[in-house]
C-alpha cells in the first residue's frame, strides 16, 4: 500500500500550535520585533440604498471601508423590511466581486464565444440592426422582456419610441391570477394584511417564511406572539407551516374546493359578518345559492382533508372575525400554478368578505400609494402612443380580455420567434431560458431571433445565446430611478444609489438606453439626465432629490387607519358576483373547476410535481452566489421530497437517486423521504438547475421544475399553470 503523502487538517493545526509555542518560547523574540508597521485606519462610509436580492427592494445602509463594500444594515423605518436583511441581502454584497462578472460589452462571434467591444461599437451595431429589422418586419417584431420592478416606465418609453407595444414581464409565470382575481372582486390587486393585530391568520398555498417579505414575516410572528392562531394549508410541511399552530395537508390543486366549503359552512351556520355583507357587498344571495352544493363532505373527497377539519377551520375563522384574515397569495396556489387559480383567488377574496375584515384592525387593507410625477413634455417630449395589440394576443379582448397591458405572456415568445413574428428582443433583469417552461423549446425560439440584446452582469443562460451583452453596473455601483413601492401602512419613497464606483466597464440601464437611443433614431426622447428624471418624479411630493439621496428613504406620512372600507369595483362594493366577468360572459361567481391534470392514483410511479421557494434563493438569480450555494450544500436542500409510503412502493430510501421524467423533460435528483408531503405529489425546490457553464458556482446543481413543464396557456389569462405537471418517478 502506497504511503499517503501530505498532512491532515487536524495534524496541520496541531503542528501549527506546537510551532507557535516553540517560537513564543524563543529568547530571540522581543516586543515589537516582528510587529508590522501600523496601518492608518480605513475610512468608513455609510450610503443608504436599496437591495436587489429580490423584488422587495429592501432599504439598506451599506458601509464601505476604503473602496470596498464592508457590511450592510436594514433601514429601521423602511415599511417593507423594518431594519432587517435576509441571507440574500447579506450574501449579494459580495457579488460585486464575483469573478464570473462581465467586464465590458460583448459581441457573440460563435456558439458561446464572445469578444469584448466598445460601448460605441455595441450601440452602433445594435442601432443599425434594430432599424433594419423594424423597417423590414415592422416595429411589432421587436420586444422587451424584463422583471418590471423599478424601470417599467423607462422600458415602456423605450419601446413606445421604437413603435412597438411588446413589453413583457414575468407576470404570466408568477402572479397574474392573484392580481386579476383580487381586482375583479375588490378593485385592488394587492391588499395588505394587518397580521400584528389579527386573531386568526390562514395561509393557502403561501409560504411567506420562504418567499420572503420581511415586514410580513415580522408581523406574522408578532401577531402569533400576541395570541393569534396561525393555520397553514399546503401539500407539504413548509417553513410557514413550521411557524403555525396547525398544518393542514391538502391534495395539490384542490384549494378552491376547500374555500368553497368554508363559505358553505359560514353561510349555512350564519356565522359570517352579516352587517358587513349587507352594506358593502354585491351578489351575496346568488353566491350563497351557488356554494350550497359545496358541502364539507364533498370537499373532503376533493381535497383529502377530513370533513371535521374543514368545519372546525370555518368556525374558528368566523369566531375570530373581523380580526381574521386569509393571505392574499402570491406565486403559489393563487399564482400561476393551476387552471383553477383565478377561481381560487376569487373564492379567497369572497371568504375574506364573509369575515368582514376589509379595512378593519387585524384584517385586510389597501396600502397608501405614492403618486409620482412625470417629465415635463415641453422640455422632454414623449414618444407618440402605440395603439396596436401585443403580438402574443394578450391585449386582444377576444382572446385574453383580462390580461393587463405591459405584462404579456412571456412564455409565448419562443413560439412567436420560431413562427417569425418576433425578430429582435431586449432582455433585462430576466432569464427566460431558466424561468420559462420547456427550456429546450425556449432555447430553440430565442436562437431564432435575428437580434437578442441582454443587459446581464453575468453570462446567464439567456445572455449566453444573446448577440450582444450590454453589462449593467451591479446594484452597488449604480444610481437608479426613484422607487415608491415601500408603502405598507404609510407612504414612503426611496432611492438606490451607488455605494462603490463601477469595478469594470459597465453602465446603469438608464445611461445605456440614453446613450443607445440616438443610434436607434429615438434620441430626442432620451435627453434628460437621471437626476432630471428623478426630480420630475419627486416634484409632487415636496421632496428634493438632494434630501432623498442623503436619507435614502423618506416616510411621507398618510398612515393607514381602520375605518369604512372602499372598493374600486364597478359597483363600488365587494363583488361576490363580478360584473366585469358577467359582462364578458365568463363565470361571474367562484365555482369548482378541476385541475388541468391529475396523477394516476393506481400507478405507483405517477405523481404531481409541485415546487416552491427557499428563503435564501431568488428565482434563477442567486444560486450562483457562493455563500448561498453553501447554505444549500451544508443543509442538502436540493433534494426532492417524497412520502414514505410512495417511496417504499418504489424501493426508494432517503438519499437514493431517482429519475424524474415528464412529457417534455427528464432529470435526476436525490430523494428526501418525509411525512411532510402529500402522498400524491413530490416537491422540488425552485431556483436550481443552472445549465450555463459560465456560472461556475451554480452550474450542474439540481434540477428545475421548468424542465418538466409543458408550455400551457390557461384559457382566461394565458398564464403558465406551472403546477400542472405529471411526472413519472423511478429509482435510478
Task: Write a structural description.
- By secondary structure, the protein is α/β, with parallel strands linked by helices.
- It has 4 domains: 44-97, ADC-like domains (N-terminal domain of TfIIb, Single Sheet), CATH 2.20.25; 106-174 and 406-541, Rossmann fold (3-Layer(aba) Sandwich), CATH 3.40.50.740; 188-365, Dimethylsulfoxide Reductase, domain 2; 606-731, Barwin-like endoglucanases, CATH 2.40.40.
- 29% of the residues lie in helices and 16% in strands.
- The chain has 23 helices and 26 strands.
- The protein has a 7-stranded mixed sheet. Strands 22-24-23-26-21-25 form a 6-stranded mixed sheet.
- Strand 4 (106-110) and strand 5 form a beta hairpin.
- Helix 5 (176-186) crosses helix 13, helix 8 packs antiparallel against helix 11 and helix 8 packs parallel to helix 13 (341-355).
- The longest helix is centred in the first third of the chain and has 19 residues, at 119-137.
- It is globular.
- The two termini are 34 Å apart.
- 53% of the residues are buried.
Amino acid at each position: 500500500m502506497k504511503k499517503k503523502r501530505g498532512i491532515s487538517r487536524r495534524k496541520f493545526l496541531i503542528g501549527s500550535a506546537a510551532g507557535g509555542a516553540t517560537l513564543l518560547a524563543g529568547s530571540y523574540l522581543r516586543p515589537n520585533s516582528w510587529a508590522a508597521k501600523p496601518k492608518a485606519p480605513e475610512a468608513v462610509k455609510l450610503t443608504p440604498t436599496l437591495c436587489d436580492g429580490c423584488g422587495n427592494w429592501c432599504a439598506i445602509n451599506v458601509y464601505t471601508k476604503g473602496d470596498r463594500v464592508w457590511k450592510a444594515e436594514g433601514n429601521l423605518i423602511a415599511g417593507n423590511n423594518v431594519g432587517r436583511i435576509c441571507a440574500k441581502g447579506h450574501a449579494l454584497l459580495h457579488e460585486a466581486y464575483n469573478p464570473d462578472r462581465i467586464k465590458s460589452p460583448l459581441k457573440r462571434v460563435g456558439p458561446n464565444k464572445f469578444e469584448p467591444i466598445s460601448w460605441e461599437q455595441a450601440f452602433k451595431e445594435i442601432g443599425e440592426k434594430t432599424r433594419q429589422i423594424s423597417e423590414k418586419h415592422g416595429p411589432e417584431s421587436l420586444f422587451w422582456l424584463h422583471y418590471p420592478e423599478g424601470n417599467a416606465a423607462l422600458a415602456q418609453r423605450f419601446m413606445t419610441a421604437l413603435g412597438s407595444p411588446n413589453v413583457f414581464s414575468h407576470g404570466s409565470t408568477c402572479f397574474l391570477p392573484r392580481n386579476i382575481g383580487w381586482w375583479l372582486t375588490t378593485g385592488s390587486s394587492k391588499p395588505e394584511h394587518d397580521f400584528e393585530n389579527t386573531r386568526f391568520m390562514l395561509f393557502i398555498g403561501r409560504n411567506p417564511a420562504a418567499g420572503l417579505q420581511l415586514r410580513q414575516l415580522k408581523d406574522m410572528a408578532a401577531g402569533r406572539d400576541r395570541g393569534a392562531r396561525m393555520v397553514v394549508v399546503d401539500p407539504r410541511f413548509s417553513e410557514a407551516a413550521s411557524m403555525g399552530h396547525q398544518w393542514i395537508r391538502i391534495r395539490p390543486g384542490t384549494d378552491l374546493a376547500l374555500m368553497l366549503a368554508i363559505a358553505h359552512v359560514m353561510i349555512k351556520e350564519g356565522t359570517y359578518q352579516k352587517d358587513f355583507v349587507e352594506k358593502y357587498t354585491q351578489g351575496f344571495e346568488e353566491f350563497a345559492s351557488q356554494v350550497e352544493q359545496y358541502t364539507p363532505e364533498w370537499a373532503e373527497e376533493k381535497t383529502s382533508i377530513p370533513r371535521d377539519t374543514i368545519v372546525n377551520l370555518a368556525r374558528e375563522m368566523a369566531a375570530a372575525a373581523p380580526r381574521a384574515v386569509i393571505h392574499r397569495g402570491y406565486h403559489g396556489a393563487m399564482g400561476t400554478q393551476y387552471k383553477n387559480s383565478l377561481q381560487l383567488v376569487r373564492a379567497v377574496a369572497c371568504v375574506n368578505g364573509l369575515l368582514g375584515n376589509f379595512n378593519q384592525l387585524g384584517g385586510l387593507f389597501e396600502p397608501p400609494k405614492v403618486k409620482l410625477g412625470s417629465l415635463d413634455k415641453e422640455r422632454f417630449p414623449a414618444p407618440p402612443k402605440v395603439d396596436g395589440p401585443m403580438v402574443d394576443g394578450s391585449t386582444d379582448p377576444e382572446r385574453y380580455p383580462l390580461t393587463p397591458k405591459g405584462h404579456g405572456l412571456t412564455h409565448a415568445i419562443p413560439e412567436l420567434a420560431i413562427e417569425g413574428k418576433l425578430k429582435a428582443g431586449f432582455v433585462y433583469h430576466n432569464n427566460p431560458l431558466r424561468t420559462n417552461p420547456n427550456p429546450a423549446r425556449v432555447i430553440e425560439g430565442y436562437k431564432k431571433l435575428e437580434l437578442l440584446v441582454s443587459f446581464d452582469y453575468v453570462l446567464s443562460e439567456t445572455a449566453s445565446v444573446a448577440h450582444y451583452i450590454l453589462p449593467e453596473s451591479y446594484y452597488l455601483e449604480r444610481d437608479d430611478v426613484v422607487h415608491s413601492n415601500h408603502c405598507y401602512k404609510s407612504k414612503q419613497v426611496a432611492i438606490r444609489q451607488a455605494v462603490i464606483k463601477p469595478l469594470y466597464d459597465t453602465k446603469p440601464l438608464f445611461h445605456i438606453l440614453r446613450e443607445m437611443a440616438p443610434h436607434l433614431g429615438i434620441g430626442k426622447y432620451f435627453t434628460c439626465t437621471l437626476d432630471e428624471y428623478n426630480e420630475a418624479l419627486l416634484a409632487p411630493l415636496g421632496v428634493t432629490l438632494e434630501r432623498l439621496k442623503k436619507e435614502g428613504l423618506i416616510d411621507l406620512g398618510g398612515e393607514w387607519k381602520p375605518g369604512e372600507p372602499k372598493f374600486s369595483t364597478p359597483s363600488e362594493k365587494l363583488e361576490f358576483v363580478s360584473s366585469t366577468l358577467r359582462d364578458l360572459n365568463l363565470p361571474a361567481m367562484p365555482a369548482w373547476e378541476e385541475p388541468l391534470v391529475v396523477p394516476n392514483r393506481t400507478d405507483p410511479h405517477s405523481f404531481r410535481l409541485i415546487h416552491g421557494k427557499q428563503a435564501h434563493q431568488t428565482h434563477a438569480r442567486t444560486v450562483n452566489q457562493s455563500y448561498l450555494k453553501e447554505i444549500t450544500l451544508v443543509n442538502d436542500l436540493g433534494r426532492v421530497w417524497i412520502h414514505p409510503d410512495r417511496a417504499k412502493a418504489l424501493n426508494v430510501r432517503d438519499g437514493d437517486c431517482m429519475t424524474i421524467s415528464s412529457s417534455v423533460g427528464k432529470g435526476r435528483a436525490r430523494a428526501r423521504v418525509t411525512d411532510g408531503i402529500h402522498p400524491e405529489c413530490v416537491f422540488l425546490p425552485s431556483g436550481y438547475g443552472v445549465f450555463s457553464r459560465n456560472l461556475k458556482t451554480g452550474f450542474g446543481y439540481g434540477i428545475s421544475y421548468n424542465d418538466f413543464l409543458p408550455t400551457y396557456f390557461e384559457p382566461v389569462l394565458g398564464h403558465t399553470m406551472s403546477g400542472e405537471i405529471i411526472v413519472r418517478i423511478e429509482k435510478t
